[in-house]
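Sequence only, no structure available. Ideas?
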Amino acid sequence: MTGDQPCIVGLTGSIAMGKSTVAAMFADAGVPVFDADAEVRRMQGPGGSLVPEIEAAFPGSTGHEGVRRDALGAMVFGDPDALARLEAIVHPAVAKAREQFLARHAAEPMVVFDIPLLFEKTGAETVDKVVVVSAPAEVQRERVLSRPGMTEEKFAQILSLQMPDADKRARADYVIDTGTTLADTAAQVQALVDKLRADLRD
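Reply:
I predicted one. Tokens follow.
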């Protein structure tokens, strides 16, 4: 962290651990949140800036609604080379959007970067503090398999690409437990925000 930018809190967690819910709680507590996934959806939506480049690389993957996520997903699922080509398009665009977000919130004491694959792809050294969102494995499994179109095979594939939850917790500066009530999770988030703000004032 440098003196001319906020403390950057990296928020991460495995699939269905409740990361989006916790990100919204940080926002409710007055902390600006950069949601990488939401940014990608915007850039891949109708008229999105990435749509022409993705169509050129993956013909038939877009339409009037922007990127057809199912079609594109089928083209890259289980194909590391195709996934790498897609990431080479998406990641630089997200990095630029993140820089613009930081510039807009330069006067804030802290901001949150919501990064699903913080440890796997981005690198924890890119943030000042790491918050991992976690829940018991059986809660995670129940949440995942209740999602439309989710199968045991897809869940296993996703888990194989993600660092195990126990490893993430071990590397975290702070852990938010979402295997409890929403009110309790929100209280954990508010307490953490209060602590970080106090630390930054010291």
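The mean pLDDT is 92.
Hope that gets you unstuck.
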